[in-house]
Amino acid sequence: MRKLVYYAAATIDGFIAGADGSDPTGTIFEIEGDHMPVMIAEYPETVPTHMRAPLGIDAPNKHFDTLLMGRASYQPGLDLGVTSPYAHLRQYVFSTTITESPDPDVEIVSGDPIEKVRELKREDGKDIWLCGGGKLAAAVQPEIDELRIKLNPVAIGTGIPLFDGELGPQRFRLAASRAFESGMIFLTYVRR
Fold first, then answer.
1. Residue 147 in contact with residue 188, Cβ under 8 Å?
2. How far apart are CA 76 and CA 189, in angstroms?
3. Which one in 34, 50, 160, 176 has a CA-CA gap of 20 to 30 Å to 26?
4. Which segments of the chain are extended strands (E)?
5. Going edge to edge, which strands form the sheet with 90-94?
6. pLDDT, tens digit, for every residue of 115-151?
């Protein structure tokens, strides 16, 4: 059975985005530094489709073939006219407010996210990438098998937390860590 992996950037105080929910790339999280070539080489599928050619990325998907995101994570790209941000992956957007998909490559899921995750886990294939956001992560938390966190050396004080919702204590074991000169630490945790 494949795994659900929450792969996300976070601040040292536990936020994945600013308080307004805006895309933090380049404003909160450093997009330059010795960590970027490593992350792109190791996780090429996490680069949005429209950015792959300009960055010279033509590598196949290494870890994931399916992407899950909440409506708030999907909306910034949609506002820019990007209806299929990860066309090289199967894309599922969990929303009760978007009733019809703006793109045939994006499936809108309005039902129980746990049931959808369990259905996807039963399929053959690579792992499933939980891209964001915090509310979806809290909703599917019992099904998360691994956390792969790009911990950035910045604190913002308020914002969207890694898990945005009620949940009881969840135990994970540190499986790997890698520190970069940029100050970013890549952490891999597996469910205990």
1. yes
2. 28
3. 176
4. 4-11, 15-17, 64-70, 90-94, 106-109, 127-132, 146-152, 160-161, 172-179, 185-191
5. 106-109, 90-94, 64-70, 127-132, 4-11, 146-152, 185-191, 172-179
6. 999 999 999 999 999 998 999 999 999 999 999 999 9
Q: In whole angstroms, what is the distance from residue 119 CA to residue 90 CA?
A: 14
Q: Burial letters for 54-64: b for 16+ Cβ neighbours within 10 Å, e otherwise?
A: eeeeeeebebb
Which residue ranges make up each domain of the chain? 4-191
Dump the DSSP string for 141-187: GGG--EEEEEEES---SSSEESS-S------EEEEEEEE-TTS-EEE
The structure's pTM equals 0.95
Which residue shows structure tokens 């604190």? Answer: 155
CA atoms within 13 A on the CB side of 41: 5
In CATH terms, the superfamily for domain 4-191 is: Dihydrofolate Reductase, subunit A (3.40.430.10)
Nearest to 154 by CA among 6, 5, 17, 7: 17
